[in-house]
Design the sequence.
């Protein structure tokens, strides 16, 4: 019984109990072990105190109470699990300082083209980020929302902020690619500002696709130095597909000329 009560404390949310990664908190599913221990402890106490007839009646009563409470809880929780939006709205409401909850809600709202809601959720995700990668992802999602609103300069700044938070190699390549395409749309690309696109990890680190797209765009815009640099980051032994893709891009460029 004592072990069950002790195990129950993290799930009560009397105090925030962060897990090892990010803002993950003890969820209602961790009630299974502590409540099982509590039930075993109570059953042992009742078995000592009651006669066999009373125990049978009590077990029957507990069975109906347990079944009824489960039905009531299922009725309460089913609407929360109706879809991604209801789930993350609920979690971001009860865990207001959960960066992951706000970040996931932002992703759902972005898909639904609710850009105002996306910006609000990403701001909260960045405000409560406990790890740099959480802030980087939130800044990237906010950048996507800004692009959809036509705010390209603001989006570029957000992607640069995301890069400053040292994201994973794959995300870093993705952010650099986003900055490049936005600069291309704004007419900001020339030989004098390509250095910002050279801070790329070599492939493959989950970033091969971004690298080859970036290289092809550099070739298309006659940024030969940048193209050569990116191509050097691709390992012939580990990513032959990307090199084959770039050879085709080179052939098309020669034909166009």
Sequence:
């Amino acid at each position: 019984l004592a072990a069950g009560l002790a195990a129950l404390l993290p799930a009560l949310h009397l105090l925030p109990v962060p897990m090892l990664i990010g803002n993950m908190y003890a969820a209602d599913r961790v009630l299974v072990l502590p409540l099982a221990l509590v039930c075993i402890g109570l059953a042992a106490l009742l078995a000592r105190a009651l006669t066999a007839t009373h125990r049978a009646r009590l077990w029957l009563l507990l069975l109906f109470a347990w079944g009824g409470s489960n039905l009531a809880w299922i009725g309460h929780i089913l609407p929360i699990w109706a879809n991604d939006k209801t789930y993350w709205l609920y979690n971001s409401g009860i865990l207001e300082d959960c960066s992951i909850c706000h970040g996931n809600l932002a992703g759902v709202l972005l898909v639904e083209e609710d850009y105002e809601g996306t910006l609000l959720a990403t701001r909260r995700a960045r405000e409560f980020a406990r790890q740099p990668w959480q802030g980087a992802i939130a800044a990237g999602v906010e950048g996507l929302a800004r692009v959809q609103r036509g705010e390209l300069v603001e989006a570029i700044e957000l992607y640069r902020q995301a890069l400053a938070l040292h994201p994973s190699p794959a995300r870093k390549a993705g952010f650099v690619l986003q900055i490049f395409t936005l600069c291309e749309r704004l007419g900001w690309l020339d030989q004098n500002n390509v250095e910002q696109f050279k801070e790329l990890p070599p492939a493959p680190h989950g970033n091969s696709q971004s690298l080859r797209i970036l290289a092809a765009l550099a070739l298309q815009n006659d940024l030969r130095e940048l193209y050569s640099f990116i191509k050097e980051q691709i390992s012939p032994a580990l990513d032959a597909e990307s090199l084959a893709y770039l050879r085709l891009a080179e052939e098309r460029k020669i034909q166009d000329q």
Summary: The chain has a mean pLDDT of 81.
